[in-house]
Specification:
Length: 373
């Protein structure tokens, strides 16, 4: 490494979003460098459950998740075993008839947009997941959803890209045409990308991005205990919050026969330590849905910070500094939407036509500016 190295693209952050951006630019024949302070996939990527899931909170969210899920499906033949890709499907679990109403709404929404689903009644749900408690009303199976192991997926994307990877190098500043590292060296690049997740505002001040803390628990190996990713459908109306924090039932099977249990959300804290109160609430919620979970052995609990925006959409596009682009603010959907983010960012930089409109994700969008004002 020289004091000044030159690339077409310099990306700060080797999480899955930075890796996906690197892969897309490299595939276009550009000379790419990725700079990472810690380890590949060690930030929010390591704290992600690894969903590859379509979501419908808004049309823009659906478009991005659907597009990216299709890109993941295209990549399946290339994914090595260590990525642990599994097409588990998602079952949105309905506890009562009111939540079954949401099942039917989601089914209609997805059907109108070409996403296959299957409504499960109580008997079908019990047959699909025998370890769920009795008395649940049913659910919606989305068979195209999948899970993977995010850190190895990020590493695969970077390796596949063949780009330069500088690990253990902290970025001090991002400027037009250059990245200044804390050791004083510089990287010259035609385009600079800030893909540093929840710490992105440290390098691009003024961003409407805030850290949102989450906890995850993984169990020992229990073959056959769980077959699908399960998510409770009624978390918005259920009384299972801890102060302003919240937890929800979300569990998924891993290819290792372990179970990954989430989820939690905490705003307004930067304390990375495990919060025992939150973990107890999260596991209590999980046991409400799957009583047998209470008998399993948990072998690790950890936390991470996701990059949240006020309107729940990521920032993909130019910052206020010419030549400095953003790829951050993905919150809990960074794994799913990483590949589409790389595509949309490269489309803007290279002035290519995009498969979906990128305007809903531009950092300058009106909804974000208004909510941040």
């Amino acid at each position: 490494m020289t004091a000044k190295s030159t690339f077409d693209i310099a990306i700060a952050g080797a999480g899955i979003v930075g890796a996906a951006c690197a892969a897309e630019f490299a595939s276009a024949g550009m000379k790419v460098v990725v700079i990472e302070r810690d380890m590949v996939g060690s930030g929010a990527t390591a704290a992600g459950m690894g969903h590859i899931v379509v979501m419908d909170d808004s049309e823009a969210q659906f478009a991005l998740t659907r597009y990216s899920q299709q890109l993941w499906h295209e990549l399946i033949p290339q994914l090595p075993a260590e990525v642990e890709y599994q097409k588990t499907g998602t079952i949105w679990v309905a506890a009562d008839e009111e939540e079954m109403g949401e099942v039917y709404r989601k089914r209609e929404y997805y059907a109108a947009r070409g996403v296959a689903t299957e409504v499960l009644d109580a008997k079908s749900l019990a047959a699909a997941e025998p370890n769920l408690r009795a008395g649940l009303a049913g659910g919606l199976l989305v068979p195209g959803d999948a899970v993977l192991y995010p850190p190895t997926a990020a590493a695969f994307l970077l390796r596949n890209a063949g780009c330069d990877l500088w690990v253990g190098k902290a970025v001090a500043r991002l400027e037009r045409g250059r990245v200044i590292l804390q050791d004083g060296s510089e990287i010259l690049a035609g385009t600079v990308v800030n893909a540093t997740g929840s710490v992105a505002p440290e390098l691009t001040p003024g961003l409407a991005v805030a850290p949102r803390k989450g906890h995850l628990v993984i169990t020992d190996r229990y073959p056959g205990f769980l077959h699908h990713q399960l998510v409770e459908l009624g978390y918005l109306k259920s009384a299972h919050s801890v102060g302003s924090d919240s937890v929800a039932f979300n569990v998924q099977p891993r290819r290792t026969d372990q179970l990954l249990i989430g989820s939690s959300r905490q705003d307004g804290t930067q304390d990375a330590d495990v919060d025992r109160q939150i973990v107890r609430a999260m596991l209590s919620r999980a046991v409400e849905y799957m009583p047998g979970l209470g008998k399993l052995k948990a072998i690790r609990t950890w936390t991470g910070f996701r990059a949240a925006t006020p309107d729940k959409l990521p920032l993909i596009g130019s910052s206020e500094i010419p030549g400095v682009y953003l790829a951050t603010g993905h919150e809990g959907l960074g794994i799913t939407t990483s590949l589409a983010t790389g595509k949309l960012l490269a489309d803007q930089v290279l002035r290519r036509e995009s498969a979906i409109p990128f305007t809903p994700y531009l950092p300058s969008r009106a909804t974000l500016v208004q909510s941040h004002a």
